[in-house]
């Protein structure tokens, strides 16, 4: 409990020192320097934002390609695509596959029969 108290005191002191220090810096700093620093921070933020957006697009594309590779590797020859099977199941079409039986009762997980693999 004492450690938590001192951590709280440290956080509070840090916040107070940061805010007061910022006011002092703004008081004595020339306006042109402050404007340049603000512009530099905005430019950095814009570059970081564009980097994150570009990274997200590339990551999404790479993930989709890898997912397609893994799906193709998991499917047996002639086995339908899992997305097509799920869509058919959602519309109520069975595609000729029988219902798997379950001795214990309860909901039937028919993904194994339709998709051809399970975990």
Please explain how this structure is put together.
Residues 108-119 have a biased composition (Acidic residues). Residues 73-119 are annotated as: Disordered. This protein is 72% helix and 0% strand. It has 119 residues and is mainly alpha-helical. The chain has a domain at 1-78. The longest helix has 44 residues, at 31-74. The model is unreliable at 98-104 (pLDDT under 50).
Helix content: over 70%
Low-confidence stretches: 98-104
Please tell me what the overall shape is.
elongated
Order of helices and strands: HHHH
Q: Give the biggest beta sheet.
A: none
How many beta strands in the DSSP annotation? 0
Q: Report, as a whole number of angstroms, the end-to-end distance.
A: 45 Å
Supply Rg: 30 Å
Structural class computed from helices and strand pairing: mainly alpha
Strand % is under 5%
- Mean pLDDT, as a whole number? 82
Total helical segments = 4
Topology:
Blueprint (H helix, E strand, L loop, with lengths): L1 H27 L2 H44 L7 H10 L19 H5 L4
Protein name: Secreted protein
Organism: Xylanimonas oleitrophica
């Amino acid at each position: 409990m004492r450690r938590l108290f001192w951590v709280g005191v440290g956080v509070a002191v840090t916040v107070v020192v940061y805010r007061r220090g910022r006011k002092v810096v703004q008081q004595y700093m020339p306006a042109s320097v402050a404007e340049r620093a603000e512009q530099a921070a905005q430019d950095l933020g814009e570059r970081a934002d564009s980097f994150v957006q570009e990274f997200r697009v590339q990551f999404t594309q790479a993930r989709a390609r890898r997912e397609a590779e893994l799906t193709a590797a998991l499917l047996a020859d002639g086995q339908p695509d899992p997305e097509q099977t799920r869509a058919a199941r959602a519309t109520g079409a069975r595609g000729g596959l029988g219902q798997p039986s379950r001795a214990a009762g309860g909901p039937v997980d028919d993904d194994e029969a339709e998709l051809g693999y399970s975990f």
